[in-house]
């Protein structure tokens, strides 16, 4: 695969020029290390697709060299692809305790628990593979138990930050280990890979703890039930909801499968502390004094099947939002989700609830989990890398991150903005990007992994916008003449009761076309089908300015 | 239609619980007045639809009473439906000068110029129809020549604000006529209909003139060409771009059809003043010193076919964005457009341009054209209506607007949050909402108006997510036995070269089903087709967890 066996190579198989399906690779000679294995949700152009994962052809071709899949934290865009990955390439997985707990939920679902080697490490752990030692440093993000990774290779250290922010007054004392980062930087960093999600945003994020104060205030003010919705994986925020409920004398119900799952895993592993008598079941809510109830639920991004959406349309078993209940959306809509979130807010107002919402943390009920510009500069300053590769972001974010790196003194020529698949090769004296490995995306649709390709999506696109028309033509085997009337059906094209005339015209033009053609060519299948398609196509376009997909069947008897 | 002939009735046929397709109706006895006739762009769930307009069944049923279509201003959500409306109901249209100019562009396109009675009025004009006199007041918005409307009926005045903000330092002295509004309020307003777009936003909008300062500053700083993109209809902003170009010694090129159209209409009518030698053609840009060039273009919302998008992908004849050119997006992405806008910004950075962008006016390059909370309260205070109907907004906006009205003293019982079609009847002593007229949406798709209905969209939805499978079965007329192999084609379902086994299984199950059935029932068409569909459906779901649309044809010979 490569004639650069003696160098260090770094590349991404996902996560660059996109948000989602993160996967980064560090290769030193014959040892390949994979960092993260996320999934990505499709945008609306990928019709019917459930999930997008990485194309790992390169890793399969080099499977004897792949030593480990190391996971930085438990978010979907870092762990969501693991079951699909392991079905293709069963290698050992390494993760911290909480991350491993969340991965196990997935492995169970996919029936992979017994076949997977999942090793738990801690921020102080050290791993060793041939020439490469691996150590970690604790970071802070919107999920606990996050780490950055240091690969100690013979030619220098490669640091991958994972997702991070600097929260200096963290919930549960889950602080970033700045001293260790400083030490790593002092010892020399050859290459830094750092996340770029918020590289467009100036300043320094407020601490997660500020959210807790706002939650408690609203819990105190509320005269009736309080509903609060946030990402289940934001365990620190869940802790603050628990604390606010306790301080204001409310019991807490949990709604939504992922909320129940994450709370159970996080409690078991000690990342979440819930008083013994705090939790109640949904069916108990109706029997209690509304002032004594808080409900923590999923669906803060407007997901149509999640708890908040169902609550807002009065469609949740045992639980009802009533006039003057308070509903808090402790979140900021991710681009693309605004409309779904707005619809929920409309419905909550229709239920006469008091709704607390807003984007970008304007209500104080949300802070981002990703480093803003000053935090990114702090990381760059701590690590003072020789080479820098901005990762985890769309192009404009990588570009802004590059500018930030230059501003704190990284040489412009030593910064590499890459694409998925672009390889940065590093040796003692220099780094260069001249070659690529195969990278791409694979679609998951139902049980199918990779069986929906671009051509299938192109057909779905045409069908979705214009619909289709199917024509069955029955002709004589001997002379190609029509034996019966053409049989025509449309779907997604026109409302047929309104279009009887048009369908009649279609059948007429089909008859004429077949009759004319068969007298010349006899029963040449392809010629007949192509001519029919062409003449029907132009008729329909003239009449409707639409181009439905036209399929014809020729039955010869 | 109604047994309330002696009252005043007010309702909406579009614009409530939505942004778009505005149409409000004021009826006094036998005189019906229609206000605005906008279109709405479909969201992504309305697959393949080009435009949404109002269902005007009620007006058609009462066409002898419909006196006038009066337009408040020239935005698409207020004029976009006019050609479709006039084809159904040819009534006189009234508009201010610029609005009429923009309407004429549409009438021309639809071949309606000669058949339409379009009357131009001014803010000082008075119209009279039987018992009802109509006057206007000048407002300020993100397009010039806007008005609010006053219907003077025998039982009191009905005021419709149109879209508005209060810009007290307006470009071109295009100020809202606050004195006239105060007088209207002083004389007594029975019912106020006021727009609610920004009812969620606190404060008072900055003046459009602040944008001009920022534009000029960037024009001055730019070392190379400057590109600036904004809504073509924002003539005041276009004026400020012209002014900035003049002050900084740059010539100006216009790119994009709507920019050229609007500038031409607005210049002709005196709403825009461009120095004689200011404009250049696109092909001249390349020949000039980049420091002497500014380009004003369409596409600030990321529209894929508009000028900015094509420029960003180096796909615009004669014009190229080069390294260190400046590109300004003088806009804020409308929810739903963020992804397209982001893609353009990524591409502009790839071209090494200096890009100035940001949402919500964070760069100073955009202000909203809609009244914020303090401005809405100012309008309510000026008008001090007895009854209030918040219009032009989604539910949460109407709800917040209701709260604002209460805060400035409107009686809670006198505020009506309605749906499209809900009628507010008003007499001397009271107002009440007890009845509805027919209201709805009509889809425009190509040349078809109304021929795509919900069932067609449902089919498009299934086809778009799961694709389809078509099976042609040829059986004997006498005993219903198969005569040849089933013929199976799929589209949008699976990549067929990967799915040969599956298709083979389908054909097998079809054969078995037909054979079994025909031995019992003979050739009962429906029974055979239903059984085939059912057995194929469950096979495919088991194998793929997908449910493509299955269509079968039964040919009997």
Automatic annotation (TrEMBL), chains A, B:
Instruction: Classify the source by domain of life.
Output: Bacteria
Q: Where is substrate annotated to bind?
A: 232-234, 366-370
**One GO process term, biological-process aspect:** rRNA processing
Question: Where along the chain is Ca(2+) bound?
Answer: 48, 50, 445
- Catalytic site positions: 195 (proton donor), 370 (proton acceptor)
Q: Which SUPFAM superfamilies match?
A: Metallo-hydrolase/oxidoreductase
List locations, semicolon-separated: Cytoplasm
Q: Where does Zn(2+) 2 bind?
A: 78
Query: Where this protein primarily resides, as one coarse class?
Result: cytoplasm
| UniProt cross-references to CDD domains, sorted A to Z | RNaseJ_MBL-fold
Give the top-level enzyme category: hydrolase
UniProt-annotated binding residues for Zn(2+) 1: 73, 75, 77, 141, 163, 392
| E.C. designation(s) | 3.1.-.-
Gene Ontology terms: cellular component: cytoplasm
Pfam families, A to Z:
Lactamase_B, RMMBL, RNase_J_b_CASP, RNase_J_C
> Which cofactors does it use?
Ca(2+); Zn(2+)
Per the entry, the cofactor note is:
Binds 1 Ca(2+) cation per subunit. Seen in 1 crystal structure, it is not clear if it is physiologically important.
Q: Which UniProt keywords apply?
A: Calcium, Cytoplasm, Endonuclease, Exonuclease, Hydrolase, Metal-binding, Nuclease, RNA-binding, rRNA processing, Zinc
- Family, similarity comment: Belongs to the metallo-beta-lactamase superfamily. RNA-metabolizing metallo-beta-lactamase-like family. Bacterial RNase J subfamily.
Q: What does this protein do?
A: An RNase that has 5'-3' exonuclease and possibly endonuclease activity. Involved in maturation of rRNA and in some organisms also mRNA maturation and/or decay.
Quaternary structure annotation from Swiss-Prot or TrEMBL: Homodimer, may be a subunit of the RNA degradosome.
- Specify the protein name: Ribonuclease J
């Amino acid at each position: 695969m490569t004639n650069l066996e003696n160098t260090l190579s770094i590349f991404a198989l996902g996560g660059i020029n996109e948000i989602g399906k993160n996967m980064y690779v560090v290769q030193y000679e014959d040892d390949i290390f994979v960092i993260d294995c996320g999934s990505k949700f499709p945008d609306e152009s990928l019709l019917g697709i459930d999930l997008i994962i990485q194309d790992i052809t390169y890793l399969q071709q080099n499977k004897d060299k792949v030593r480990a899949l190391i996971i930085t934290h438990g978010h979907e865009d870092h762990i969501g692809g693991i079951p699909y990955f392991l079905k293709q390439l069963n290698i050992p997985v390494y993760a911290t305790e909480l991350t491993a707990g969340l991965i196990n939920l997935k492995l169970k679902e996919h029936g992979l628990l017994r076949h997977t080697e999942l090793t738990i490490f801690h921020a102080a752990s050290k791993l060793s593979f041939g020439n490469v030692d691996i150590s970690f440093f604790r970071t802070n993000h919107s999920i606990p138990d996050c780490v950055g990774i240091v690969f100690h290779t013979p030619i220098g250290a490669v640091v991958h930050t994972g997702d991070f922010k600097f929260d200096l007054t963290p919930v549960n004392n889950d602080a970033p280990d700045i001293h260790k980062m400083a030490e790593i930087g002092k010892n020399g960093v050859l290459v830094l890979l750092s996340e770029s999600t918020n590289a467009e945003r100036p300043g320094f994020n407020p601490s997660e703890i500020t959210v807790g104060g706002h939650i408690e205030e609203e819990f105190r003010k509320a005269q009736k039930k309080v509903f609060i919705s946030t990402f289940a994986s934001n365990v620190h925020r869940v802790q603050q909801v628990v604390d606010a409920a306790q301080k204001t004398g409310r019991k807490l119900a949990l709604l939504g499968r992922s909320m129940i799952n994450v709370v159970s895993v996080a409690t078991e592993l000690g990342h979440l502390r819930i008083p013994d008598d705090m939790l109640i079941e949904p069916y108990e809510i109706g029997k209690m004094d509304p002032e004594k109830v808080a409900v923590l639920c999923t669906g803060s991004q407007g997901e149509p099947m999640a708890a908040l959406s169902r609550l807002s349309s009065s469609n949740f078993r045992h639980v009802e939002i009533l006039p003057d209940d308070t509903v808090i959306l402790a979140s900021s809509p991710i681009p693309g989700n605004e409309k779904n979130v707005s619809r929920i807010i409309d419905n909550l107002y229709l239920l006469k609830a008091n709704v607390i919402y807003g984007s970008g943390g304007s209500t104080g009920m949300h802070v981002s989990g990703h480093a803003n510009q000053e935090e990114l500069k702090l990381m760059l300053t701590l690590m003072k890398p020789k080479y820098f590769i901005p990762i985890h972001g769309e192009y404009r974010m990588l570009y802004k991150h590059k500018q930030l790196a230059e501003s704190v003194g990284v040489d412009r020529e030593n910064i590499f903005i890459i694409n998925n698949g672009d390889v940065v090769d590093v040796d003692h004296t220099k780094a260069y990007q001249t070659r690529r490995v195969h990278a791409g995306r694979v679609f998951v649709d139902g049980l199918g992994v990779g069986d929906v390709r671009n051509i299938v999506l192109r057909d779905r696109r045409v069908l979705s916008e214009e619909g289709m028309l199917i024509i069955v033509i029955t002709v004589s085997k001997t002379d190609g003449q029509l034996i019966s009337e053409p049989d025509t059906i449309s779907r997604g094209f026109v409302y047929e009761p309104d279009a009887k005339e048009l369908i009649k015209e279609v059948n007429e033009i089909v008859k004429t076309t077949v009759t004319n053609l068969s007298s010349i060519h006899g029963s040449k299948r392809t010629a007949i089908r192509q001519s029919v398609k062409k003449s029907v196509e132009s008729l329909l376009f003239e009449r409707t300015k639409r181009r439905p997909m036209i399929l014809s069947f020729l039955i010869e008897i």
